[in-house]
């Protein structure tokens, strides 16, 4: 566990700043996640997902509405009191929560790991650490947030935000197997230059990520 990283995220509470927004932020409202909540069960069936790791899981405001029938769910979270609260409110035989730093602590092997609304808050080197950590887990698929920005900028400090597109420099991931809209239904995705409203969840197989990391090592 990286203590400074844990401290950075433990102090963030979006519900204190905007009415009607859950602790994990505006991207975690039911309105914002409607498309994703509908898509996840279809992905589970298509890719035969029986074990699913949500890293980080946040406050579980929207995930509690996802159909997890037949799926073993594990939520990983760096904020300790969120793990305790989620466990008390939502924990059960097939739904569990654990404290973890996804950039540093070993990730469990799963059919699919989702990393939503997280990497764009981290320094580039920590994003690479997470991808290495994902590969080390021998999990099959990674589902993660993708913006359509034309270039990536590093965050000034962990916990801040910059648009993140893993398909371009310096990450250069191949095109994902799936690209799922992750904006509120009915929101205009904007014109060619307005990438800020074009946001997705991209699905990659571990072999694709492995090739991206090998290319980085050889560069």
From TrEMBL:
InterPro entries: SAM-dependent_MTases_sf
Domain of life, source organism: Bacteria
Protein name: Class I SAM-dependent methyltransferase
Source species of the chain: Roseovarius rhodophyticola
């Amino acid at each position: 566990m990286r203590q400074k990283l844990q401290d950075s995220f433990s102090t963030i509470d979006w519900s204190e700043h905007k009415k009607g927004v859950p602790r994990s932020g505006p991207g975690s409202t039911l309105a914002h996640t409607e498309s994703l909540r509908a898509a996840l069960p279809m992905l589970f069936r298509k890719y035969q997902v029986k074990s699913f790791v949500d890293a980080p899981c946040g406050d579980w405001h929207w995930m509690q509405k996802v159909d997890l029938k037949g799926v073993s769910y594990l939520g990983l979270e760096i904020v300790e009191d969120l793990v305790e609260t989620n466990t008390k409110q939502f924990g059960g035989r097939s739904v569990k929560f654990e404290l973890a730093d996804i950039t540093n602590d070993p990730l469990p092997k799963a059919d699919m790991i989702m990393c939503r609304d997280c990497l764009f808050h981290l320094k580039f080197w920590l994003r690479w650490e997470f991808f290495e950590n994902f590969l080390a887990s021998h999990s099959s698929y990674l589902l993660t947030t993708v913006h359509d920005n034309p270039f990536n900028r590093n965050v000034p400090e962990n916990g801040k935000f910059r648009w993140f597109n893993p398909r371009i420099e310096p990450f250069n991931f191949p095109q994902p197997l799936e690209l799922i809209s992750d904006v509120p239904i009915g929101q205009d995705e904007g014109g060619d230059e307005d990438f800020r409203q074009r946001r997705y969840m991209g699905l990659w197989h571990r072999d694709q990520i492995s090739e991206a990391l090998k290319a980085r090592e050889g560069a």
